[in-house]
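1st attempt posting a full record on here, be nice pls
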Amino acid sequence: MQSSASPGTGHEEELGARKLIDLCEFTYSSYASVSAQVTLDSHVEKTLQQLRVANKDERCSIGQVVYGVFRYRRFISCFLDSFYHYNRCCQVPGVCILGSLQAQGAVIPDFQAAA
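the predicted structure (as tokens):
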């Protein structure tokens, strides 16, 4: 998020996808400045209260996204680095990214339709 202003909502009406993504990004990125003082759980709760996100489902969704990104940040970083590194001139990006992940030791499950 580019602006320093908090993207608060202040009402119970449903948020759109862009607003939810912005709130997730803001909540996750603002944790870096306070991570030494608070836990991730308390930061998420405090931030959602300050942003006045009232909808229970949206609060839960934002929290789960932030926890997931925090927990899997190394994998996400590896995935994106591989994607951008190996797909600069690839004709079939999906094939290139799977090959690069397998080369790094990732186990890719083989999903096949049931017969």
